[in-house]
Specification:
Chain lengths: 325, 291, 247
């Protein structure tokens, strides 16, 4: 990472840790939501930014994860187990969904995930005996670890932040490994990659399934955060939101999801004056961004820094410069 | 037996509407590699244009053409110039994302600027029932079928029997060659967008009396369009028509005989089935690999 | 002497056009086979059919005795077949080093092992040797897109060799390369061939390149083989001369 990157990341980390002391409970709730949604966005970034596939199902995976944890913990299962189950279940579903869809071209995955999200919503709404239907599931408890309860806002925030840090680290490790190199290869030159023995289909499927798994883990934290879940929260709207998050932040950049989730969580607050119009503003912002700066906020930052340092370097800067050496 | 006929007829009517939407979608893809994720919202919107015109005092027979004209302008010309053209240089993926954002924009705009409540929409013919072979068939279904058939027929004539239509087909198949032959490729592409705008406007007029004009209509209609296109083979207009009709009939039959709660799941099941067993759809060709 | 590559009655049609028409040939172990021919004689189509980029309309391809017709390019690569490209050669935003690691990593261990193992998949030394062999050491950390065209061609060849393939198909390696770089490229290819006794098949337009490098030459015209033999024979073959002049 560049010096700028290290400084920025350290500063952000410090802010993330001390922020709760300056915020009221609602503010802490917001940053907890940011942490939880960032996990889902990191997953979607893998699918979209690294493997180049549009997925409209990330919201559905968050929902599946949330319901899994809610139902399991209310049935007496320890949280850690329910958490893992949420991730594994969503990974498996992602794999099964992606396998047929990725065998064909034409962005079929986008349509399949669109239909899947509709189906998940229908199941959550109709199967009252399991999910409580439109009444949802109430009174979801926050977990306790070694006697330390996370019921209060601040401890729960640190729990979310800690989980985010662990998952982000794991993702960073994966992107540094040969897998990450294969993802970059299939992103930059899929034909060349294939001729070198890189099974682009399998790597794309893997990226999608891992992304789905991360969505499930995000949902596993979402449930105890909001403590009441109902099907409507996990319909197409959330999938849209996550997609826009990844794009606005900068798809394909490691820290894109962090930035995008921040914008998504804060935007409704900033737009309180404009009330419900924030979605329209969001959508317009994305369309404008796609026209002028498809690589999102972090892409814009990189462009500015490149322009500033153009005299220094003869070679064009790496796109993933913020992502690591 | 009687109810089966009834279901078939209404299924064909629904299917005809889906076919119109799917054909427009396929045409856009064929000529300009545009995957219009907002196609469903494109069908939802014209009804609101017409309702707005009626709110300003125009009778339906006047408001409808006005709505169609506005659709051509907004969903045809503006869509192409403002959204598609600037994006094409970046490739298919940014365009897909743009149209996804567009679908959200149109849906929220309809909700915020018009109404979040479902609005009644005037039907083309008064809804009466006639008796055919002992089955009760609604005149509305028949009217929908007739309008759809006439539209598709006209489109077929346009594309295959006129010079303009053949130029458009040439542009779709081989733009480089078309340009060499002197065909104004840009204009042909524009015409495709205009045709799509007309198709979705007609579909809107046909579907809104049944489903009522609601901002959320786009979700189901869009999914139906994509599924129909994929069933048909994604790159085939004939396929889009067949796919739409099949989807409409299956949709209606399943709603009647299976649980109506899971009606929205039919497109997904069909989609997965097609992709698993015949990914090239009914009329598509098996993909050559890329060179 | 075993045949590394056998092509039998290969045919490829696009609609009404037959680009490759009943082509059969063998490539023996250790050979450098050149394939030449006038434009649109079907050379590239032939290559793409052998390499799995296109599905042949008929005929068979065998590598080391194993039928590989229609196999996916990545599976073919794992059998030891590698290629260079006319265009689209490298990964422009990865460093030269990373390009080479990527070129070899899929042959190191299982997919899961590569996730938890070393970041360079254990290829650090092998990559350094390859970089030195192609005289790219001073550019090792540069993004591949910053290299000159000729240097990218060298990198392209290096990438094709990374996994130690038994058969390498080179698609117009000399295209667009300046004279000094060209002799370096040819010299490096010959050196690699001598060191590893690898088998090459080369499509080329540039006669001097082919004549200097190849041990045997095949001539294609309008999708069919019209001549075969040693370079100096082909050069004087009237049928060949006619095919070129006739175009």
């Amino acid at each position: 990472m560049t010096r700028f990157g290290i400084l920025a990341t350290t500063a952000a980390a410090i802010i993330a840790v001390v922020l709760p002391f300056f915020l009221k409970p609602f503010g802490i709730y917001l940053i907890s939501m940011w942490a939880v949604l960032t996990i889902a966005a990191i997953g979607l970034n893998l699918t979209l930014g690294y493997a180049g596939q549009v997925s409209m199902a990330q919201g559905a995976f968050v929902g599946i994860g949330a319901y899994t944890v809610a139902l399991l913990t209310q049935a007496g299962c320890p949280f850690a187990l329910a958490f893992a189950a949420a991730g594994v279940l969503c990974f498996a579903i992602g794999w099964m969904l992606g396998y047929p869809a990725l065998r064909v071209a034409h962005h079929y995955l986008a349509f399949v995930t669109l239909a899947f999200t509709t189906l998940v919503f229908l199941v959550l709404r109709n199967e009252e005996w399991l999910t409580g239907g439109t009444y949802g599931i109430n009174g979801i408890l926050r977990p306790a670890f070694f006697g330390l309860s996370t019921a209060k806002p601040q401890p729960f925030y640190y729990f979310c932040l800690g989980t985010l840090a662990v998952l982000a680290l794991a993702t960073w490790w994966m992107l540094r490994s040969p897998w990450g190199r294969a993802f970059k290869g299939l992103r930059e030159n899929p034909i060349r990659a294939q001729s070198l023995g890189i099974d682009t289909r399998r790597y794309t499927l893997m990226a999608f399934a891992i992304g789905a798994g991360l969505g499930g883990l995000s949902g596993a934290l979402y449930a105890p955060l909001v403590q009441f879940i109902e099907p409507g929260s996990f319909a197409l709207g959330l999938s849209f939101n996550l997609l826009l998050m990844v794009i606005v932040g900068g798809s394909g950049y490691f820290f894109g999801p962090f930035v995008g989730a921040l914008v998504a969580v804060l935007l409704p607050e900033w737009m309180r004056i404009a009330e419900g119009y924030y979605l329209i503003v969001y959508a317009v912002a994305v369309m404008v961004m796609m026209a002028f700066c498809p690589s999102g906020i972090l892409g814009l930052v990189e462009r500015i820094r490149n322009a500033a340092s153009r005299s220094d370097r003869a070679a064009p800067a790496l796109r993933a410069e913020g992502a690591g050496p | 037996m009687a109810s089966l006929i009834q279901l078939l007829v209404s299924g064909l009517a629904t299917g005809a509407i889906y076919a119109l939407i799917a054909v427009g979608f396929t045409l856009l893809w064929q000529t300009s590699q545009t995957i219009n994720f907002a196609q469903g919202e494109f069908v939802m919107l014209p009804a609101f244009f017409i309702l707005a015109a009626m709110n300003w005092g125009a009778p339906f027979w006047l408001a409808a053409p006005i709505g169609v004209a506005v659709s051509i302008l907004v969903l045809g010309v503006l869509f192409k110039l403002v959204i598609v053209d600037p994006m094409l240089k970046y490739g298919v993926l940014p365009l897909v994302i743009s149209t996804i954002a567009l679908s959200l924009f149109l849906k929220e705009s309809a909700k915020d600027f018009y109404s979040s409540q479902a609005q009644p929409f005037p039907a083309l013919v008064p809804a009466t029932d006639i008796h055919v072979f002992g089955a009760v068939v609604s005149t509305q279904s028949l009217a929908v079928l007739m309008v759809a058939i006439v539209t598709v027929g006209a489109l077929h004539l346009l594309l295959n029997k006129t010079r303009l239509g053949r130029s458009m087909q040439a542009t779709a198949q081989n733009p480089v060659l078309a340009r060499i032959l002197g065909i104004p490729v840009e204009r042909m592409v524009l015409y495709t967008f205009l045709i799509n705008a007309v198709l979705v406007a007609i579909a809107s007029i046909l579907v809104s009396p049944i489903y009522l004009a609601k901002f959320s209509n786009g979700e189901t209609l869009g999914l139906a369009a994509f599924t129909a296109a994929i069933i048909g083979g994604f790159n085939q207009v004939r396929g889009a028509i067949a796919g739409g009709v099949i989807l409409g009939v299956l949709d209606n039959l399943s709603a009647a005989y299976l649980s109506s709660q899971y009606r929205g799941a039919i497109p997904l099941i069909i989609l997965i089935a097609v992709i698993l067993w015949r990914p090239q759809g009914l009329f598509g060709r098996v993909e050559e690999r890329t060179v | 002497m075993s045949a590394v590559l056998e092509v039998s009655h290969l045919r490829k049609s696009f609609g009404g056009i037959t680009a490759v028409d009943d082509v059969s040939f063998e490539v023996r172990d250790g050979e450098i086979l050149g394939i030449i021919g006038p434009n649109s004689s079907g050379k590239s189509t032939l290559f793409n059919c052998v390499l799995g980029q296109l599905r042949p309309s008929g005929g068979e391809v065998r590598v080391g005795g194993r039928t590989t017709t229609g196999m996916r390019p990545c599976d073919l690569n794992r059998l030891g077949v590698s290629r260079t490209f006319q265009l689209l050669q490298v990964f422009p935003q990865l460093s030269v080093r990373d390009n080479l690691i990527l070129a070899g990593q899929e042959h190191q261990g299982s997919m899961v092992a590569r996730l938890i193992g070393r970041a360079d998949a254990g290829l650090g030394e092998a990559v350094d040797r390859m970089i030195a062999f192609f005289n790219l050491a001073h550019l090792a950390a540069e993004p591949a897109g910053a290299l000159s065209y000729g240097q990218q061609k060298l990198l392209d060849a290096a990438m094709a060799f990374m996994a130690g393939p038994r058969l390498v198909l080179l698609d117009e390696p000399a295209g667009g390369v300046n004279l000094t770089m060209l002799s370096q490229l040819r010299e490096r290819l010959a050196a690699y061939h001598a060191e590893r006794n690898a088998t090459f098949v080369v499509i080329e337009h540039q006669m001097e390149f082919v004549m200097a490098l190849c041990t045997r030459v095949l001539v294609l015209a309008e999708g069919r083989i019209i001549a075969e033999g040693a370079p100096h024979e082909i050069r004087r073959n009237p049928v060949v001369i006619d095919a070129y002049l006739g175009h």
